[in-house]
Write a structure and sequence with these properties.
- With 320 residues, this protein is α+β, with helices and mostly antiparallel strands.
- The chain has two domains: 208 residues, Jelly Rolls, CATH 2.60.120; 105 residues, Arc Repressor Mutant, subunit A (Orthogonal Bundle), CATH 1.10.10.
- Helices cover 49% and strands 17% of the residues.
- The chain is built from twelve helices and eight strands.
- Strands 1, 2, 3, 4, 5, 6, 7 and 8 form an eight-stranded antiparallel beta sheet that branches.
- Helix 2 runs parallel beside helix 4, helix 3 packs parallel to helix 5 and helix 9 packs across helix 11.
- The longest helix is centred in the middle third of the chain and has 23 residues.
């Protein structure tokens, strides 16, 4: 752990740190953020004793100007004993390239960033013709967050938009600042910042995938149909008929559009109704189960635990 802390500090004192290596001029929208990070990077803070790969992260703000010296391959980064991790890198000035194996390179200018899952078949580098590349970056080992990010990257791709005013950008800037100054009270505050970043990413991906509003429209329509059908449980066949589709065709359409299966969403809607009754009434579980389309109280308890990770009785007690 002491070696990891020392190496994470060496990252912050290398010659490529933006404060030591002049690079391309940022646009006015990015100038202030880059100025703040550059000022911080002149006096980085060593990691405290509790700062470990499992509880924290590492990162910096860098400027790269030599194409021959900046090329990372996602299949060659780890040593034999190193665990998987992901990097997030977002451009502050200039641009570089990100490339999945077998696909054309994608330019990464200011206002964009990417996730690099390691190991995975990708590379990123400073190409000939770039004026230079100044970027913030950090790496995270946290296994649970690694799995969540990997799932989202698999669904929506590695590149993301990072406008200066965006929530994802603000969360990323906070982590770069934290990597430099270690301005967290303890490991719990670090983990909170890491979770905030991942949730900001998932929220961005959700919004980016539904810019036409179709996902929300379909969810609202199906939710209304399920609620209107209570106390009977609405079958997927009936939902498919409403859309003039076969069961299999509708299931495929719904999953592509929403990322959910119809059966799971239907159960989620009925559990939401049951949760409201637990909060708003003193009705016994059997009555709630009957009203929300469950076979009996035991069935309600089983499905409720799957979604809420508590029994209905425990949930009711915890919020009252």
């Amino acid at each position: 752990m002491a070696l990891w802390r020392r190496r994470s500090h060496e990252v912050l004192t290398s010659d490529v740190v933006a404060s030591r290596n002049p690079g391309p001029q940022p646009t006015p929208a990015w100038a202030q953020a880059l100025k703040q990070l550059t000022a911080l990077s002149r006096a980085p803070t060593p990691a405290p004793s509790w700062w470990t790969p499992a509880t924290a992260f590492f990162g910096s703000v860098e400027t790269r100007t030599d194409p021959a010296s900046y090329h990372w391959d996602g299949m060659k980064r780890l040593g034999r004993k190193d665990p998987p991790l992901f990097f997030f890198q977002f451009t502050l000035a200039g641009w570089g390239h990100f490339e999945l194996y077998g696909q054309p390179p994608r330019q990464v200018p200011a206002g964009t960033g990417f996730f690099a899952m390691v190991p995975s078949r990708h590379r990123y580098y400073l190409p000939e013709g770039s004026p230079g590349w100044t970027f913030g970056w950090f790496g995270i080992y946290h296994p649970y967050l690694l799995a969540r990010v990997g799932k989202q990257v698999g669904a929506t791709g590695p590149l993301v938009e990072t406008p200066p005013e965006g929530a994802l950008t603000a969360s990323a800037l906070r982590l770069v600042r934290g990597a430099i100054k270690k301005d967290f009270r303890d490991r719990y505050e670090v983990e909170l910042a890491l979770f905030d970043f991942v949730l900001s990413y998932e929220r961005w991906a959700h919004q980016a995938s539904d810019r036409s509003g179709e996902r929300q429209r379909v969810l609202d329509e199906v939710r209304a149909r399920i609620v209107a059908g209570l106390p009977q449980a609405t079958r997927v066949d009936a939902l498919a008929a409403d859309y003039g589709m076969s069961r299999s065709h509708f299931s495929h359409f719904f999953r592509v559009c929403t990322g959910l299966t119809p059966a799971r969403f239907a159960a989620e809607v009925r559990i939401h109704q049951a949760t409201r009754m637990l909060l708003d009434t003193r009705a016994p579980l059997k009555q709630i189960a009957d009203a929300c389309g469950f076979a009996n109280a035991n069935h309600l308890c089983k499905v409720f635990r799957r979604f809420q990770h508590l029994s209905p009785a425990s949930y009711r007690k915890s919020v009252r």
